[in-house]
Amino acid sequence: MNKKKEQLLTLIFVILLAALIWLAQNYFDKYLIRILNLGFIYVILAVSLNLLFGFTGQFSLGHAGFMAIGAYTTSLLILPVSQKEMIYLIEPIIWPLSILEIPFIIALLLGGLFAAIAAILIGLPVLRLRGDYLGIATLGFAEIIRVIANNIPQVTNGALGLKGVPEYTNLWWSAGFAVVTVFVIKRLISSSYGRALMAIRENEIAAETIGVNLTYHKVMSFTISAFFAGIGGGLLASLLTTIDPRTFMMFLTFNVLIVVVIGGLGNLTGTIISAFLFNFTLEYLRPIENGFSLIFFSVPKIPGLRMVVFSIALLLVILFKQKGILGEFEFSWQRIAQIKNSLISRTSEGGEL
Amino acid sequence: MSFNIFMQNVVNGLSLGGLYALIAIGYTMVYGILRLINFAHGDIFMLGTYFLFYAVAIFHLPWWLSFILAIILTALTGVLTEKIAYRPLRNSPRISLLISAIGVSFFLQNAGIVTFSGIPKAFPRPDIFKKILIIADIRIQIVNINAIVISLLFLMILLYIVYNTKTGLAMRAISTDTETARLMAIDVNRTISITFAIGSALAAVGGILWALKYPQINPLMGIIPGLKAFIAAVVGGIGNIPGAMVGGFLLGFTEIMLVAFLPRLSGYRDAFAFLILILILLFKPDGLFGKNVQEKV
Question: Which ipTM value was assigned to this complex?
Fold first, then answer.
C-alpha cells in the first residue's frame, strides 16, 4: 500500500468521523453527547499521558496539576464579566482578570500554553529523577498546584471554585482536539524524536551513550504532554461548567492512568478505545451505584462501587495482560491491509474462516 | 508566643512526628527489600482504624483485645496484598509494580467506601485518652503523651527485631542483595511476608493512635498521612529504618511549628511537605542518612 492511498483513506476516515459527529451533535440525546464528549476529552488526556508513560518511560503522576492549570486559565478567560462579579464572594477578583473575556479557542490554547510553561519549569529539575521518585515528585507538584488554587481566592475564588463557566465544549471541539492530539503525537513518535524517546524508555544510559540528549528529549515529551493535558482540562471545565480545587485531586490522574494502562502502555489505538470504554462503563454502572428497584426487590445505593470495578480491572490488566487490551495490535492502514489479505488468501485456498 | 503555648506545640509536634515515624517504617522497609513505593500503605493504615472501630463499637470487645485484633488483621491484609498484587510482578519492570500498588490503593479506598460508607465515623475514645494534663500551666492532652510513648515503644521493638534477631538479619541481607541472600538459604518469600506484616502492624498502631488524636475516621483518611509518612521516609533516606524514624519526627515537628509560628501560611500546610520532598529529591536524593548508590551499566 503506497503513501498516497493511505492519505486518501485517512482523509475518508476523517470525513466519515466529521459526518458522524454532525449526526451525533444534532440528533443524539444530551446524555449520550455528554458521554461522548467526556470520551473524547479522555482520549486527549490519556494519549498525552501515554506519550510520557508508554513511549518515554517517564512515570508522571502530575497530569491533574496540568489539567488544573489549563482548566483555571480557560475558565477565567471565558467567564463573563458579570458572572465574575457575582461569584467572587471571599475577595474580589484582581484586575485584569476582572475585565477580560476572550474567545474560547484562544483561552483553550493559552491554557495549554501555561500548562506547558509550568511543565518546562517543573520538568527541568524534576525529570532528572528516575522511575517512582519522578512519580512521587510530580504527584507532589500536582498537590501543590491544588493547594495554591485553594489559597489565592483573589484569582481562583479559593475553595468555592468557579461556577457558571460558559458551556462551549461540544463534540466539534472535543473530537477536533482529540484528532489533533492523536495526529501530533502519532507524528511525533514516528519521527526521529520518537525513536529517541523510545530509546530513553528502553535504557537511559544506553540512549545517552549513543548521543540522545536526555534532558532535552524528556522535557520536550513532558511539555507536549502537559500542553494537551492543559487543553483537556480547559475542555473539561467548559463541559462541567463548575470547577473547584477538589475537581483536580489525584483521583483524576488515577482515572487517566487507568485508561492508559487498560489501553496499553505505548499503544495509541488501545488508549483511544479504552477512553471510551472507561466513560461508557462509568456511566452505565451509575444505576447500580445509585440503587434501583425491580418489581420484587430493591438494590440499595452502593457508592464507590464503580471505582472498585475499575481498580480491579486495573489490577487484572497489570497482573495478567501488561500490554493492555489490544496486546501488540496497533491500528494502521498497512496492518488493516495485511489482515484483509490474509483473510482473502485463506478463503481463496478454500479453507474455512 | 508564650512559653506555655510553645511547649504545647512541641508536644503536639512530637506526637504527630511519632505517628509519621510509625507509618514511615512500613514504606522504608518495603522499599529496602522490593524497591517499591507501596502506595497502598496509607490505606492499610486506614484499615487498621476501621478494624479497631468495628471491634470496639460494633462487637463491643474490650479495648486491649480490639487493639491486638486490629493489629493482627491489618498485618494479614498487608501480607495478602503483597501475595496477590506484588509477588506475581517481582520480575516485571518496576513501573508495573508501582501501577499495581496504585491499583491496590485505589481498590482499598473504594472498597472502604463500599463497605464502611464514605460518611466519616466518630472514633470511640476511652476516657483515659480524653484527659488533659496540666503541668505548671502547660495544658497537654494525654493522648499526645500516650502517642509519643506508644510510638517510641513500638519503634524500640522494631529496632530490636531488625538488629537482634535472625529474621531481622534475613531482612537486612535481602535488602543488601536478594540473590546472594537466596543463595545463603534465606527464605526470601517468607521474609518479604514478614516485612509486610511488621510494616502493616506498625501502620495499624499509627492509625489507631491517629484516630485517638483526631477522632474521626473515613475511608480516604490514609492518603495524606500516607504521603507525608512517605516523605518522612525519603527525608531520612529511604531504605534506612532509623532514618525513617528521625525523618518522621522531623517532619511532624516542622509541620506543627510552621503552622504555630506562621499561622498565615497554615493553608499551605499540605503543600509544605511536598515542597520538602521535591527539594530533598533534587538536592539530597539519598536523604539525610541514606547511602549514595550509583547506577551502573
Answer: 0.85
The fraction of chain A above a pLDDT of 70, given in percent, is: 95
The verdict on A285 touching B (C-beta cutoff 8 Å) is no
- Is B105:B34 a contact under the CB 8 Å cutoff? no
Provide the whole-model pTM. 0.89
At A34, the pLDDT band (50, 70, 90 cuts) reads very high
How far does the CA of residue A323 sit from the closest CA of chain B (Å)? 11
From the list B95, B271, B295, which residue is nearest A148 (CB)? B271
Mean pLDDT of A72-86: 88
Q: Which residues pair with A299 in a beta bridge?
A: A292
The conformation of residue B184, written as its DSSP 8-state character, comes to T
**Count of residues in chain A:** 353
Beta-carbon separation of A304 and B227 below 8 A: no
Q: Cα–Cα distance between A286 and B221 in angstroms, integer?
A: 25
Tracing cell 472498585 back to the chain, one arrives at A308
Q: Which residues of B touch A322 (CB under 8 A)?
A: 92, 96
C-alpha cell at A299: 438494590
Residue numbers of chain B with a pLDDT score lower than 50: 296-297
Q: How is chain B split into domains, by residue range?
A: 25-222
Residues A45 and A122: beta-carbon distance below 8 Å: no
Q: Is A299 in the B-facing interface, judged by CB distances under 8 Å? A: no
B112: nearest CA partner in chain A: A304
Domain range summary for chain A, segments of one domain joined by +? 3-290+299-348
Output the nine-digit C-alpha cell for A31: 446524555
- Backbone phi, psi, residue A243, to 5°: -135, 150
- CA angle A343/A345/A351 to nearest 5° reads 80
Of B113, B268, B278, the CB nearest to A137: B278
Query: Which one-letter amino acid corresponds to residue B190?
Result: R
Integer Cα distance of B235 and B253 in angstroms: 13
Query: Among the listed ranges A31-45, A149-163, A293-307, B49-63, which one has the minimum average pLDDT value?
Result: A293-307
